[in-house]
Amino acid sequence: MFTTRCVLPFLLAALCTLVPLRAQGPYFYRPLDYGSMSMFTPWNVVLNGSYDIIQLDGKNRHIFELPYGTGFENVVKNCINMGATISQIGWGRWLTTEVFPLNFTKEGGQWLPNYQLHLIGGGMTYRMLEEWFEHNKVAAPGAWAVGTMITYHMLNEVVENEGYVGYNSDPIADLMIFDWLGIVLFTSDDVSRFFAEDLHMADWSNLPMITFPGARLGNNGLYYSLKWTVPGTDDKWSVWYLMGMSNMAGPSYHVDAENSISVGAGLRGKTLYTVDPSVRLLSLNLVPTAGIYWDKNNSLMASLQVSGQEDQTVIGQFYPGVFRLGPISPAVWASYGSNGSVGVGIAFQGTFGIGYRNK
């Protein structure tokens, strides 16, 4: 009874996976042994997605010390008593800042990540997880995919809640509307086909690393690439968009039949600030960012990103297929921060990595 209201939308979404709408595919998962596709696993989804917020400057990366119990209890209480919580912020304000794209100010644009990362990104991740479980011959792949999504989405809200106790309006829109709607949306072949074939959507998530000393989580984050081919360019040029904690756009050029280079610039989150403490309404301080990305068959091979962040001013990532150690091709991460932070790490196909970070 304690968690029924939070989980019920996902259970309804799980029932939708039983409806025979999926006759084709796979659309997103391919069993490649190189690039970001070779690193896609349910456990990396949970690490990248659940702790997405700790990419920001100053966030606690000691994931084994976070106040999970307090966060879980507060998130569930707000979902169960969502009418009281929304009344604190006001239904009109909540609907225009969290649900409908009607407020375009920085303080009122909480709907943007809800659509980008929870509805579209979350839906695509659900479908890709289902395809991963199916490829690995796991029984009831849809149920396992929904279970993984429930775990990641709940943990995401718990981690974002931190040790706060009180009204919190943010998890209501995420858990009660956008997260499960994304699952339902991408149950459809037509929707999945559009994002996979027309927009070439791909998971370009970071390489999560457990760093020492301190057993902290480093370099995690969910990221999605979309490309729209420019007509009349013989499929050479595309308009490229990367969405996640960093949002950037620019051109993408097909160097040959397999390889592409994408260059973009935009904004990324640096820190959080409080808009309304009565309901813990938060917004992001944004800083400029830019990057260059190399992909092979839409599987990210390497990236270099710079931004105004202090913890991670420069981030370099090299996925399996770039370097070789005999028969093994590892993934490598390195970062430098203007505050003096330095991080390095190594991972292998299908695993999270191990690394060092000095602060």
What does this entry look like structurally?
This protein is an alpha+beta fold and 359 residues long. It has one domain (4-18, 33-357). Helix content is 35%, strand content 27%. It is built from 9 helices and 13 strands. β11 (331-336) and β12 form a beta hairpin. α3 (68-80) crosses α4 (82-89) and α6 (111-135) crosses α8 (170-185). The chain is globular. It starts with a helix and ends with a strand. The relative contact order is 0.16. The mean pLDDT is 93.
Give the tags.
single chain; alpha+beta; 13-stranded mixed sheet; 359 residues; 13 strands
Topology record:
Elements: H1 4-16, H2 42-50, H3 68-80, H4 82-89, H5 91-99, H6 111-135, H7 141-161, H8 170-185, H9 189-198, E1 202-203, E2 209-212, E3 216-218, E4 224-229, E5 237-243, E6 246-254, E7 259-276, E8 281-296, E9 299-307, E10 314-318, E11 331-336, E12 342-347, E13 353-357
Helix pairs in contact: 1-7, 1-8, 2-7, 3-4, 3-7, 4-5, 6-7, 6-8, 7-8
